[in-house]
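2024-03-11 09:14:02 INFO worker-7 job=invfold-0412 stage=load source=structure_tokens
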């Protein structure tokens, strides 16, 4: 009984770490794939609101269209033309879901997953403005 009482907290801590790690990786993959999906439809000529809506839709409710940043990066001539880049970025705050949250909140409250996807435009985008600058930071 004493051995069980000594090992149970360690076992539960390891179990909770495994659960939080697995859910965190799942959320990271969803956010990354969502920005990739947004950049893909942006590369074929979708408008900025359509890109943000697609990212939010494919994130299974994790992201809001307001969480998505869409930029066009090119030679700086003002229009987003074929061969230039569309950059889709989003941030997601992941909070731990197990009771470890109470103990680890001293060090950090959440983990920020930042996803940035860059794809070359296959079609010119009407009304899109080339912002210039860096692709993904």
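2024-03-11 09:14:09 INFO worker-7 stage=emit residues=137
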């Amino acid at each position: 009984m004493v051995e069980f009482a000594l090992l149970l907290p360690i076992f539960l801590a390891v179990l909770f770490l495994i659960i939080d790690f697995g859910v965190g990786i799942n959320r990271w993959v969803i956010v990354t794939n969502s920005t990739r999906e947004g950049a893909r439809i942006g590369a074929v000529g979708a408008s900025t609101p359509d890109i943000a809506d697609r990212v939010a839709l494919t994130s299974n409710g994790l992201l809001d269209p307001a969480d998505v940043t869409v930029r066009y990066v090119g030679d700086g001539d003002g229009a987003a033309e074929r061969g230039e880049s569309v950059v889709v970025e989003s941030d997601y705050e992941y909070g731990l879901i197990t009771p470890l949250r109470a103990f680890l909140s001293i060090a950090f409250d959440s983990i920020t997953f930042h996803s940035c996807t860059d794809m070359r435009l296959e079609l010119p985008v009407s009304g899109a403005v080339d912002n210039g600058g860096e692709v993904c930071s």
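2024-03-11 09:14:09 INFO worker-7 stage=report msg="The beta strands are 68-73, 85-94, 111-120."
2024-03-11 09:14:10 INFO worker-7 job finished
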